[in-house]
Amino acid sequence: MEEYLKKSIRLADAEHMARAAMAKATELGLSIAITIVDESGITKLFTRMDDAPLMASDASRKKAITAVGLGLSTGEPWFNFIREDPILREGVHGFNDFMLLGGGLPIVAGNQMIGAIGISGGHYLQDQECGNAALNSL
Amino acid sequence: MEEYLKKSIRLADAEHMARAAMAKATELGLSIAITIVDESGITKLFTRMDDAPLMASDASRKKAITAVGLGLSTGEPWFNFIREDPILREGVHGFNDFMLLGGGLPIVAGNQMIGAIGISGGHYLQDQECGNAALNSL
Amino acid sequence: MEEYLKKSIRLADAEHMARAAMAKATELGLSIAITIVDESGITKLFTRMDDAPLMASDASRKKAITAVGLGLSTGEPWFNFIREDPILREGVHGFNDFMLLGGGLPIVAGNQMIGAIGISGGHYLQDQECGNAALNSL
Amino acid sequence: MEEYLKKSIRLADAEHMARAAMAKATELGLSIAITIVDESGITKLFTRMDDAPLMASDASRKKAITAVGLGLSTGEPWFNFIREDPILREGVHGFNDFMLLGGGLPIVAGNQMIGAIGISGGHYLQDQECGNAALNSL
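ok -> structure tokens follow
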């Protein structure tokens, strides 16, 4: 039997990314929640800053799940994919835990997706900025 | 260890607010359901008037959850926040228990949100009116 | 960034195992449902034979989830682990989708668990027999 | 209006506890998942070590929820409370997210519960040991 190999994010890297996202949030004057999932969508790390809005917790998870679900970032990339077709545009909301708002980004190593990060706490453009800071920290 | 302090609504005040909301509802000829949640979104008080529509029970809860989730009232305040940006406008429905209809209001003491009230039973403008009566009774 | 490598079952092998389990079921005069999950507990293959009892579908899934959850087969192995300690014996039922009945078996390649198979449709001893036939077919 | 004050765990302390729990796990040769919830049962931090069993993720959450739900540690303390009364003993499993297995401990500051920690990954006695290491690290 031959196996199928999956690359998965390590906890050490997830922790590193979470710290970078929180540093960016602090710089922006935000308190965020962060969910990092592995390549199978299973939560690896979750952190909620002390003043993060209640809504941010679950939203961060959904953004991560949506990003890892198709390898596509939430926000503009997902919106561009669905905007012209009404069936896609309305239909995607039927996916479990789908979240259109920006702040969910796939984590890629080489040419393989090894997980995703979801950020919530500010405007989705700010959440995206924190997510990008996390990706760039690797 | 230093703790993080949260101010939370007391039951006595929640009861006082519920009575004020029901008095306003009676004045408007409505039967409403009321959910009051604490600062963490946990239900503190729920009341359903004898003739309240079935739909009202859960809607009152969702309105309270939405209001406390970001500290923003449902109805116009939320709609104004999302109306111009299609990603926000469609995306917010991905938040757990999100309810756009008016009648969910944060309860603030000093500069801190200590809970939220959600009202349902009439047109959302009437629900808002009952919610405002509740807030003003404090 | 260094990645964490996971070995995962391939669909071709899952199909091979399912055929072997169904052949054994037919030999025993049973109609079974089969769930094969990958190393992360995500369903890779599900098959329900034409006359499989309704109860079998979900039970096959729970057995696979339980087997992959700790790398321990359902039935005797799990029971031997919990039988003497009342806290373990009662407590394990708190695990999500826990199923004590035999018929859930980890799929191991080398020294790594690459998935699990769950069988339901007959007495749990028969389900186990079908599961073993599947494992032995590799 | 007078408010009700709640003490809540800060993220910095939750992170400190998680590190202490992981250090103990490593010492015991275990890979664990850790959930730390605040005084309202809302997740503050979740961490899953690279080789933690799949079953550990949700179990750590349930242990934390059970511990914070009544201010009683899972494992022996909960079991001693229910063991002599069959209605209690069987009935507690009806609580949402109830988990009897040890490894869930309230986090107390002064005379107030400010959160709870839940650990899963080894035998529940080992999970408890990791939880105690976390509490003692404060």
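The CA atoms of residues 32 and 46 of chain C lie 11 Å apart.
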